[in-house]
Amino acid sequence: MSSELVAQDEISEVASLLIPLQDKQLVLPNVTVAEIIPYRAPTPISDHAGWLLGQLEWRNIHIPVLSYELLNGASIPAIEGARLAVINGTGAQRNLPFYAILIQGIPKLTHIKEDDIVTVEAMHSGPYDQMAVSLFGEQAMIPNLDMIENELLRYIG
Questions:
Q1: Backbone Cα Rg of the chain
Q2: For residues 153 and 147, is the Cβ–Cβ distance under 8 A?
């Protein structure tokens, strides 16, 4: 019986990443992130919004690169020390299997249970932030990936 309880506990726990941005951090399930890669300058895409930094080749496909901060109306993030988080598309949009988000630093792996998440009020919440949470005393934003993907598709088709 005790092994059943352990198995049940493991199921309700989600491996997640705390992803550092310039002035906040995102929290995403680990399976949402395909890879963290060193920053390399994306190729600009003509007629695009400022938050759409361009595209780059990753594993023989071209993926769009965005700045989450700029998308949310914040200031331009630093490029020095930046990395890119390659995100698995949600599957709702077939034309967008992957995209990359400019991040600052190295994400931190954490295991989250439902009880670990505390919803908080955020002073700097943007339109693409789904929810502000506190996890183990650290504040993070849960991004609205569906909205991000829909916005990306408006510009890249």
A1: 16
A2: no
Q: 70, 60, 111, 63: which is closest to 85 by C-alpha?
A: 63
For the segment 135-143, the average pLDDT, to the nearest whole number, is: 89
What token pair was written down for 142? Answer: 């849960």
- Reported pTM: 0.87
Six-digit token string for 69: 């901060």
- The residue to which tokens 């949310």 are assigned: 72
> Tokens 């600009």 label which residue?
44
Q: Mean pLDDT, to the nearest integer, of 27-51? A: 91
**pLDDT tens-place string over residues 71-127:** 998 888 888 889 999 999 987 767 899 999 999 999 999 998 887 777 787 667 889
pLDDT per position as a tens digit, 24-35: 999 999 999 999
All domains of the chain in start order, with CATH:
16-156 (2.40.50.180)
- Residue 5 phi/psi, 5° resolution? -65, -40
Round to whole Å and give the CA distance between 47 and 129.
25
Q: What is the DSSP string of 80-144?
A: TTEEEEEEEP-SS-TT-SEEEEEEES--EEEEEEGGGEEE---TT--TTEEEEEEETTEEEEEE-
Q: Are 90 and 130 in contact (CB under 8 A)?
A: no
